[in-house]
TrEMBL record, chain B:
GO cellular component: plasma membrane
Name under which the protein is recorded: Sugar ABC transporter permease
One of the Pfam families matching this protein, by short name: BPD_transp_1
CDD domains associated with the record: TM_PBP2
Amino acid sequence: MTYAMVRPSSRGVGAEQPTARGARRKAGIGLAMTAIAALALTGCASGGAETEAAEKTTIRFTYATGDETWNGVVEGVVDAFNEQSDTATVQLDPLPAGSDYATAVKTMDATGNWPALIDMRDTLTYINAGKLAPIPESVTSLLDENVYGESSDGNVYVVPTTALNGEIGINIVYDKAYFKKHKLEVPETYDDFIDLMEEIKSNGDVPLATAAGEVWPSDQLWKPLAAPVFAEWSDEDGFWNAVQAGEASIADLKAPLEELKRITDTYVLQGWQSTADAQTTTLLVNGQAVMATSSAGLGRLLDVNKVDPDFEAGLFIIPDEDGDINVLKNAVNGDTASGIAISSQAAEDEKEYQAAVDFLEFYFSVDTANLIEELGMIAPNIAEADKVKRNTSIPGAEDFFALLENPNLTWYSNEPKLATFSSFNTFFRQTRIEMQDGQTTIDQAIEKAQAEYEKIAAAG
Amino acid sequence: MSDREGQATAVATAVRLTGDGPLEPLAQPQGPGGDHPAADVAPVRVVSRRFRRQRWGMFMFILPALVVYLVMVILPSLQSLQLSLTDWDGVNSSYDYIGLRNYEEILGSGRFWNAVRNTLLLGLGSAVIINVISLVVALLLDKLNRGQGFFRTIVYLPALVSGFIAATIWKYMLNFNFGSVNTLLRDLGLGDLAQDWLGDSDLVVGVLLFIVCFTLGGNTTLIYLANLQSVPQELVEAAKIDGASNAKVFRFVTWPMLAGAVTVNMTLAVIAGWTIFDQVMVLTSGGPGFVSETMAFFIYKVGFGEYRAGYGSAAAIVLFIVVIVSTVLANRYMRKREIQA
């Protein structure tokens, strides 16, 4: 542009006037020069940016996408980290909803394409295979010591992604306005829960929406029903270990399986077999069901609020016959433990490993905990938890926090030692769905699950 | 003369007529000079050397593709045979050999036989349905005088969409609560007909069969259409002059001339049916329960989702045997029919 502007003035007074054609040619040359100059400048600028980026170590964080709240939290935290870090950039590598986690990770493993940070499941399988790197004390020291555990070799391989409040997130989300209108109360015992559903049904409405289209959400109704049996074995190394030792059997779960079948047949919204987890929010807000199963805790309340800000949602956990609210404690080790892990592949590169550690240190800081709360999830249990500002603004959140303070809340343990328990767990879910659907009887389901457990335990 | 001998003769004749190619000198007349063997032997040697050189040249052309195929397909397939005898979890580098235990377990598994039943139903069912419908559609398209291009495009369009994408669209359409199919039925006052298409264990395999047929029909129609248009019209006209009805023309002229296309289409459809995976993965994940699992999905599920790669490999070997045996038998039957034709 400079050339084009300067050039005509250089002719001076009295200079021969250019012809129109010549002027167009010169203008064209000027434009071309301008473009070249602009490109050169852009090149310099981007080269500078590349240099800057090259100084930073880029690492991938693979995580399983879930509800909108969780996806927003991951994106928000990573953006905040990238903004403040001079040494590392974290790139998100989300596993889309509906993709199979085990397959995705096995594919990464087979192709040698591990991310530095991974949202880890089936943890013991990957620890035993040497695919995870130890997490240093600089990270674990930022956490409450009850929310992580050492593996058999003394190393910590996984740290929690969010608050470890066990399976308190598995609960029933309900329409508070409907409850008020029909003078219904949150159930205090299991019988109350059945009476509640009976009353809703007698009003001509559908009591409960649940989902089994993706297999895993079938746990949302099953686990609270089976919790009283699991809780009985809590002090004796857990139910599943008792089954492995031959002291208990799947037949001990017959009563909850019968209840599962009864509730499914009598009170659940039709179409549950093909309903996806996320659809239950819509079913609730549309009034197609008065209650819906959930495993997202506060996240589900936030989702409901996003779909319909005027909807009054509340939540509760199905109590047992005595009124106890049995909730599974989180496993901090073993195959069912989950959270963020650093891959062994990343540990081979000092810079990548350091970048992953930097991110985890950032993740478990007070500022990030506050950010996670603002974004709608409960922050991980960090050592300085008293400095975290809790988010109570989500409608219905008071029910969630009240659950944590409920005197009837009973924590139980049920951490399987079987390294291949996840294989059985998938099979058991499908067997239950098959039984709920009426393809098999309860006794057949028990027999089938018992045989599979024994086979997997013998092989594993 | 058998059909193979006939083919060989035809090829040799064609090569000789064109005058180029490795067999060219063989076309030299064997006249009175035939009593001079030395004169004949020398050119044959030259030809033989040239033929070998050309063969090596041709081999070098296919070598890169062959290497890729061997490394990416054949070797892993052979490795599956080895892995099927182990308890490998697919992740850990160590495993133990357990003999034929995986095979024993597979053959005694009700879940596996349910997958076999579904695979047979979807494989054979889709092959028959697709071929019948495609043939009818091809016959209709062949008779069209106007708008041929438009209707051919319409028929072929579903085949252009990947199975995964098509299945995803169907998943939305068939959703029990929000899908357009049930919504339409309810809006028309036919709410009783609204079904949980993908969640009802009595319906789900039939729904999968419908979707598979819908997706795979385009190619089959195209092959039939191409063959229909190559049926010699003089044969058709001769039959009509002899007083044959349209049905008889089809039965005794068109249908026998389509025998080759039927073989190709049936083979392709059966193989596609044996290996149905993406539709099951997207639409039902094998459920509800295990009811809609196919063999391909079963292999994937146990091998990847349940960390039993050894067991999954054994199932893959069984699937391979089923596919190869059924394809060979079906082909043998259809080839016989072609010879008669």
